[in-house]
Structure formats: structure tokens, C-alpha cells
Specification:
Blueprint: E1 2-4, E2 24-27, E3 29-32, H1 42-46, E4 52-54
Antiparallel strand pairs: 1-4, 2-3
């Protein structure tokens, strides 16, 4: 599961176009739709502020 670190996310949206399943959007901060997210973690690599994290559940 991708977690958005609110203290690091600035809502720039840079991660959004890299999500191949459109699970990311920005409403002030990045938001991950966990029903759509397939856990590929590509968005993590493209976040310039390191505000996305993978959490094993």
C-alpha cells in the first residue's frame, strides 16, 4: 500500500502522470485510491519530495 507522507507532500502532482492505473490524484495533497493501486511503486521513484512510501500490510 502506498502511503502519502503529509508533512513532505506539497501537492505538486508530479507523481500523478506516472501512475499507469490512475490511482493518484491531488486534492491539496496527493491521494492514493487503494482500490485502483496495483502496488507497482513507480510513483515513489518520481516524487521529488520523497513523500510517497510503500507500507507492507
Amino acid at each position: 500500500m502506498i502511503t502519502v507522507l503529509g508533512e513532505l507532500c506539497v501537492g505538486c502532482g508530479h507523481c500523478v502522470p506516472f501512475c499507469s492505473v490512475d490511482a493518484l490524484s491531488v486534492f491539496g495533497l496527493a491521494v492514493v485510491d487503494s482500490d485502483l493501486c496495483i502496488g507497482c511503486q513507480v510513483c515513489i521513484e518520481y516524487c521529488p519530495n520523497h513523500a510517497l512510501r510503500w507500507d507492507d500490510i
